[in-house]
Task: inverse folding
């Protein structure tokens, strides 16, 4: 096992953290790393990736600007055949999981989704770990077939690597199949704040806040700590917050270093979305709230009283 | 319009799931149709109500999947097909996708709907893989769908926003939360579904080589998730507790003040 | 002997369970705390067709057998106990006599709308001075030409305060005691029929319960529900078997919900360095609960089967109801003990199961009366 191909996903203003973390992990396994970046003009993303990869392949094509499965899979397939990696990694984002799943069918290759760990066995085959059943168990997964072996990497599972010597960037101008689905528009949610799946710190609010206006307090705390804002299913269903902020089984799975929840009861479906978080702090008025069982620190109190006092204490 | 929906039965999200010492998984006997699959069934039924046609539910692998098919029937699906074969017992997502794709080729739908991920294995592989094997385009994590004749428009959820995508049928759509709110079946439909005869196909019926569904990825063992130590509750006067909270947040956030 | 439920029954159960989880459970606390009849939920359950489960298809029902109905009742009881009461009265006692003895015209006018949930029904046995002792019934029905005049007062009537129709047990011949009882349909709007005091209960809150007053209420001849007068008690026997099995299964469900919740608590609650679920005296409580509930359910479904087979099962029904209820009362008590100090708090779940379980003692005769009957039957050989 020598080379890892890492599919790098662009985000507004850079590249997705899970892509960097995947590059860092591949490097730490002693593999030589090839990063694949794509877009109509991927040069900025290519430069960002080059600090973490030995080689960067930057594919430029207007049809690669947004994600179309068939175009991106065709590119990834072509590059995989050229590079012959043993490992192909992608970020376990909505797009990444989509792309790598279809790629695995295209290549007839084994795939493990949203891995939280990967090691190389003495025989050179990878063994990966991934959460199943909503995080209630961890599956230790072996790859049976021949390489390449595919995996998507959970954001936050691996450390963010420090930048190293810049790898060589090669521009590609691939021929692509005609795309059959077109992205006609992109609507950005939530504006300036980092997305809940990208953040190191997530501050979540739930029904216990009582009123949508109370989320202003959550936002102020998030800004103070440089955090993303998360939301429980209840407040998304009630129309207080956008679904893109939802943490849970039917929303986003997040693994930030710090997860703080105000007024969230911690029902199973919510916990399933953040069980991988580092430190978990729960503030809830109800001493019986199930969330306390999944927390490192708990405070029984009214979020509407605690938040203003906390903001004052933090000078926010 | 003929719509196929791919469905699966999974442990109820409240079911106790525990990795035993020997690495096997103990799962409490509480099952439910996969959350996102029900959304897919509902969306299919709504499209059928407007466009006419039929909704056929498909599942691969025996065991409890017949209940998922019955759930689809109880909600209003017109038919159900189970792809059942001993070779599927150990199949991974790709093998399952091969079996389903073969069944779909035989069925000839205009549109295939499925859930974006199954809440047991959490792979999210079958949908895109089926599309790839059929040679169809696909859109996953869909929160809104309109079909007009042969044209469709779908809204896809991505980190940080939503994309609107247009294309033509046939297409595979993987449902995310928000696409449709699944109906609660009426008791009459439940009774009919409980008695309904199920169509079954084996791999041989579909011309699928059992070797082609052999797993490429296999779970060796299951482990318990890393345990958290018992929660430390903040005690004392409200003022003290807020100060303690502030201190915990600041240090966990990496000392940035 | 095959003790298994069929695949159809298992699937039916899974669907009812899912319906209860989705529609009823999110509202359980609110229904209990506010003690308000959940009209929206009632309409939704009716729309799904459940109220007609046992009734003939002709009137909008499904003609399901007893075992199937009992599966429904058992699953429904996992939600709100109050809502359970209102629904079961509607599905069983409140519509039984209409279904069995009402004219087609009456069924069209009353039963069909009841199955659609548009007319709320209730059954009136209990009076101020008589509960289990039906011979003490003082509500009277006196012939008046072709009609009957009803006079009396019924207490503790579930759905009474909101009912559109009431099936009332009255005596046509006080001297005949148990052989003088008959059932009459009384309708909201009839002169002299009044809704009296509403009772505030310890549990099963959300099921409006109160007094019904009959002050010279005149009902037409066809409102006598029965082939002959004086056979009221005989006609009741069948439905009482159903009521006892249903109550027993409600007991099993309430006990299971309480102990499942307590199990979650016990796994998480740490005392003296370990979760209390690891301690033997805590485990014993769950062991007992499991054993008794298994026994209760086996007997209860056996009685349901006997009903469907047309077998005599009056004693078995009483025994099953008694056993299941006593086991439930023990389990809900244990659930509060497992929670220790928190078991006394209104914030946690055990208190609600503890309160709701008490109603199980009222349905189908007190336990003292049941055991006395069973014992005397036994001694007669």
Result:
């Amino acid at each position: 096992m020598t080379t890892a191909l890492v599919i790098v996903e662009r985000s507004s203003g850079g590249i997705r953290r899970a892509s960097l973390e995947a590059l860092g992990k591949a490097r730490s396994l002693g593999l030589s790393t090839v990063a694949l970046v794509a877009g109509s003009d991927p040069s900025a993303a290519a430069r960002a990736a080059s600090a973490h990869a030995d080689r960067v392949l930057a594919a430029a094509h207007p049809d690669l600007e947004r994600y179309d499965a068939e175009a991106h899979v065709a590119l990834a397939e072509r590059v995989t055949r050229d590079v012959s990696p043993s490992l192909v990694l992608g970020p376990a984002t909505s797009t990444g999981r989509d792309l790598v799943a279809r790629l695995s069918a295209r290549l007839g290759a084994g795939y493990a989704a949203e891995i939280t760990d990967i090691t190389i066995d003495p025989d050179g085959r990878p063994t990966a770990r991934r959460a199943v059943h909503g995080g209630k168990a961890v599956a230790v997964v072996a790859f049976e077939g021949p390489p390449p072996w595919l995996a998507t990497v959970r954001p936050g599972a691996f450390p963010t690597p420090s930048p190293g010597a810049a790898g060589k960037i090669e521009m590609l101008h691939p021929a692509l199949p005609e795309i059959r689905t077109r992205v006609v528009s992109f609507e950005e949610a939530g504006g300036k704040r980092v997305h809940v799946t990208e953040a190191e710190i997530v501050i979540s609010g739930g029904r216990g806040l009582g009123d949508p206006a109370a989320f202003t307090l959550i936002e102020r705390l998030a800004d103070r700590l440089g955090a993303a804002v998360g939301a429980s299913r209840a407040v998304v269903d009630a129309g207080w917050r956008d679904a893109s902020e939802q943490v849970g089984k039917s929303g986003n799975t997040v693994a930030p270093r710090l997860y703080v929840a105000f007024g969230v009861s911690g029902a199973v479906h919510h916990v399933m979305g953040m069980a991988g978080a580092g430190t978990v702090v729960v503030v809830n008025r109800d001493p019986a709230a199930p969330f306390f069982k999944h927390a490192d620190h708990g405070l029984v109190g009214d979020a509407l009283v605690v938040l203003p006092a906390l903001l004052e204490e933090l000078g926010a | 319009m003929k719509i196929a929906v791919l469905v699966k039965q999974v442990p109820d999200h409240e079911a106790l799931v525990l990795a035993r010492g020997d690495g096997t998984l103990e799962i409490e006997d509480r099952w439910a149709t996969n959350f996102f699959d029900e959304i897919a069934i509902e969306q299919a039924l709504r499209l059928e109500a407007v466009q006419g046609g039929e909704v056929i539910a498909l599942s691969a692998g025996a065991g409890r999947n017949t209940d998922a098919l019955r759930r689809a029937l109880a909600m209003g699906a017109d038919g159900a097909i189970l792809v059942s074969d001993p070779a599927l017992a150990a199949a991974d997502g790709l093998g399952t996708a091969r079996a389903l794709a073969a069944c779909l080729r035989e069925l000839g739908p205009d549109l295939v709907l499925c859930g974006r991920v199954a809440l047991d294995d959490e792979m999210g592989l079958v949908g895109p893989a089926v599309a790839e094997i059929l040679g169809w385009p696909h859109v996953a994590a869909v929160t809104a769908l309109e079909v007009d004749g042969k044209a469709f428009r779908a809204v896809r959820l991505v980190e940080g926003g939503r994309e609107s995508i247009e294309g033509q049928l046939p297409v595979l759509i993987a449902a995310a939360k928000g696409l449709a709110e699944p109906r609660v079946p009426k008791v009459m439909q439940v009774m009919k579904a409980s008695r309904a005869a199920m169509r079954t196909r084996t791999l041989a019926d579909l011309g699928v080589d059992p070797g082609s569904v052999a797993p490429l990825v296999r779970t060796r063992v299951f482990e318990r998730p890393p345990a958290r130590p018992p929660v430390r509750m903040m005690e004392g006067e409200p003022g003290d507790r807020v100060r303690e909270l502030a201190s915990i947040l600041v240090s966990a956030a990496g000392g940035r003040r | 002997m095959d003790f298994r439920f069929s695949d159809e029954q298992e699937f039916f159960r899974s669907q009812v369970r899912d319906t209860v989880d989705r529609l009823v459970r999110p509202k359980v606390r609110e229904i209990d705390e506010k003690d308000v009849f959940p009209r929206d939920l009632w309409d939704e359950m009716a729309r799904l067709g459940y109220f007609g489960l046992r009734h003939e298809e002709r009137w909008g029902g499904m003609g399901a057998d007893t075992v199937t109905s009992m599966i429904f009742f058992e699953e429904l009881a996992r939600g709100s106990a109050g809502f359970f009461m209102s629904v079961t009265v509607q599905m069983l006692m409140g519509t039984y006599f209409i279904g069995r003895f009402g004219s087609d015209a009456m069924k069209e006018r009353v039963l069909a709308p009841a199955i659609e949930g548009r007319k709320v029904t209730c059954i009136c046995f209990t009076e101020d001075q008589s509960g289990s002792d039906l011979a003490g019934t003082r509500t009277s029905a006196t012939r008046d030409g072709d009609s009957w005049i009803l006079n009396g007062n019924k207490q503790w009537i579930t759905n009474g305060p909101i009912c559109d129709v009431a099936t009332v047990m009255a005596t046509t011949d006080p001297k005949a005691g148990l052989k003088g009882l008959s059932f009459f349909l009384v309708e909201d709007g009839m002169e002299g029929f009044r809704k009296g005091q509403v009772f505030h209960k310890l549990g099963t809150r959300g099921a409006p319960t109160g007094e019904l007053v009959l002050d010279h209420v005149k009902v037409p001849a066809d409102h006598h529900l029965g082939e002959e007068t004086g056979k009221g008690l005989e006609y009741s026997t069948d439905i009482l078997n159903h009521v006892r099995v249903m109550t027993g299964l409600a007991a099993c469900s309430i006990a299971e919900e309480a102990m499942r919740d307590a199990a979650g608590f016990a796994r998480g609650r740490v005392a003296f360095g370990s979760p209390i679920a690891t301690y033997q005296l805590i485990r014993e409580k769950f062991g007992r609960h499991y054993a008794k509930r298994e026994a209760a359910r086996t007997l209860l479904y056996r009685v349901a089967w006997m009903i469907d087979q047309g077998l005599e099962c009056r004693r078995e029904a009483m025994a099953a109801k008694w056993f299941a209820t006593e086991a439930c009362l023990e389990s809900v008590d244990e659930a509060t003990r497992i929670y220790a100090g928190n078991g006394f708090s209104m914030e946690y779940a055990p208190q609600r199961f503890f309160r709701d379980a008490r109603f199980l003692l009222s349905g189908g005769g007190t336990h003292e009366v049941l055991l006395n009957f069973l014992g005397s039957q036994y001694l007669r050989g």
Summary: Chain C has twelve helices and ten strands. The beta strands of chain C are 121-124, 140-144, 147-158, 165-171, 181-187, 193-198, 209-219, 224-225, 270-271, 274-275. Chain C has a mean pLDDT of 95.
